[in-house]
Amino acid sequence: MATYSTNEFKSGLKILMDGDPCTIVENEFVKPGKGQAFNRVKIRNLKTGRVVDKTFKSGETVEAADILETEMQYLYEDGEFWHFMVADTFEQYAADAKAVGDCAKWLKEQDMCQITLWNNTPILVAPPNFVELEITETDPGVRGDTAQGGVKPATLSTGAVVRVPLFLEIGDVVRVDTRSGEYVSRAKD
Amino acid sequence: MTEFDWRPGVLPEALRVRGEMLRRIRRYFEKQRVLEVETPALSRAATTDPHIGSIAATPRNGPVRYLQASPELAMKRLLAAGSGDIYQICRVFRDDESGALHNPEFTMLEYYRLGLDHLALMRDLSALLTEATAGWIGLGEPEYLTYSEVFSEHVGCDPLRDSAELLALAMSRRGLDVPDSIRDDRDALMDLAMAALVSPTMGSGRLSFVYDFPPEQAALANIRRAETPVAERFEVFLSGAELANGFHELVDAGEQRGRFAAELGRRRHLGLPAVPVDERFLAALEAGVPACSGVAVGLDRLLMCITGADHIDQVLAFGWTRI
After folding, report:
1. Which candidate in B72, B106, B167, B177 is best for mutational testing of the A interface (most A CBs within 10 A)?
2. How far, in Å, CA of B247 to CA of B217, rounded?
3. Which of A34, A127, B71, B166 shows a CA-CA span of 20 to 30 A to B284?
């Protein structure tokens, strides 16, 4: 069992807290001139995304979490699992709905995603920051109305709904920022 | 291009200001007729304080020497020899202390004034720090608060009377995570409360002095016997950082020997290495150190306040990762 001492703490370190894999977001060493030293740490639970404050007496140790963050290509969904592949080794991993979460609506086959593995099982899937998706449903376009800057909802091929400019039509491909869920531009074809 | 980053990490302004800050401090003491001294950086003895780790240096033919964690004990030997008021600006070394406000090697100003108690020394230090920072930061009138007052306001408890359980409860109520390992340790709880709840709120735009500590936190301070005894110790804060720690000095050799023994016992209990006690210092106390107060000021932190740096590396030519 690998452990880390508080003096190895730094942001990005993966540790186990109450049985859950976590990452250190921020580590602050505090110590009165004459007195006990502490590490005050912000920790993100990798399964829930929740960030909590924890205090450690300096010198204490915590268990390391076997976490690997790696890029994989999204292959397909079979109704229960989303399947990903490591490009150079062809190794495949199946992520369940808990790991994929909200990001399912951004997954397009062959896009590269960031997968977090805990003990070799996917626990978190992050889509690319920008995806290009086709509009499958939206109200008819209004040509020549680009100056007004009006928007309308559009459903994309993955099921995601984003607000797009009025002139876009079914069949157009748009670029979307997955972090904000906002339309960025019309994709060049 | 080699793989070694040779460049300094210091802010250009901090590099320029340091020398002028030191000159102002020396001018202040010259006016006050306080003598500048130097004492050895190496000693056969190490601090017994269980929370301070000494770094050992081993000469080829000799016993282990320790890099000083503070020049305090050597300076008190000078006081016992009749030096009168003295100050020293030197490097001190503390193992395992690294962070935004900590570097294992740092610059300390330590000074002693005969016949002053800790309250009078606080005022003297306020004058010194105001002069040392003039024109760079405008300091308002300093505030003077007792340890009990700041704990009552920022922690919500009575540090002189409340049990460990009550302290821990009050700290949790303020949203602080209290580790299980210190829940029955009043001393550690107070340290955490001071660092996490009190310190960040102190010293905005002026010096905040906190004085009269609980007796467990006496360190080398005299304990004033009263209905509720307090340690005649103070700390100074500026911009949320602890700048200095001062004592109305304990000059009773017997009591000092007892405190060293207690700290060594605590070291054993914590599984820390035993260290040699400074017998020459105890002998000086037996011979007689005059009544005095002394204070240690972290000059790198003062420079951080002056330059607005948010990491100590920004005021050191080469921080711990660049040596």
Report:
1. B177
2. 11
3. A34
| Among A24, A39, A63, residue at a domain's last position | A63
Q: Are A62 and A30 in contact (CB under 8 A)?
A: no
pLDDT at residue B197 is higher than 60: yes
Q: Using an 8 Å Cβ cutoff, are A172 and A186 in contact? A: yes
Residue A171 — φ and ψ, nearest 5°? 100, -20
CA distance B49 to A34: 8
As a whole number, mean pLDDT of residues B271-281 equals 94
Among candidate residues A105, A126, A147, the one where a domain is terminated: A126
CATH code, A34: 2.30.30.30
Query: Are A95 and A134 members of one domain?
Result: no
| Residue of B175, B177, B195 lying closest to A32 (CB–CB) | B195
Q: What residues pair up with B144 in beta bridges, in sequence order?
A: B209
- What residues of chain B have any CB closer than 8 angstroms to a CB in chain A? 49, 51-52, 96-102, 175-179, 181-182, 187-188, 190-192, 194-196, 199, 217, 219, 235, 242, 245, 296, 298
Taken as a whole, chain A contains a residue count of 189
Complex-level ipTM: 0.91
Is a pLDDT exceeding 90 seen at residue A85?
A: yes
Q: What pLDDT does residue A143 have? A: 61
Which of A32, A56, A87 has the alpha carbon at shortest distance from B97?
A32
Domains of chain B: 12-139+248-322 (3.30.930.10)
pLDDT value of position B4: 87
Same domain, A122 and A136: no
Which residues does residue A39 pair with via DSSP β-bridges, in sequence order? A29, A56
Residue pLDDT, tens place only, B53-93: 999 999 999 899 999 999 999 999 999 999 999 999 999 99
Q: How far, in Å, CA of B175 to CA of A134, rounded?
A: 47
Instruction: Give the closest-approach CA distance of A118 to chain B in angstroms.
Output: 26
A127 with A134: CB under 8 angstroms? no
pLDDT at A92 over 70: yes
Say what the pLDDT of residue A33 is: 84
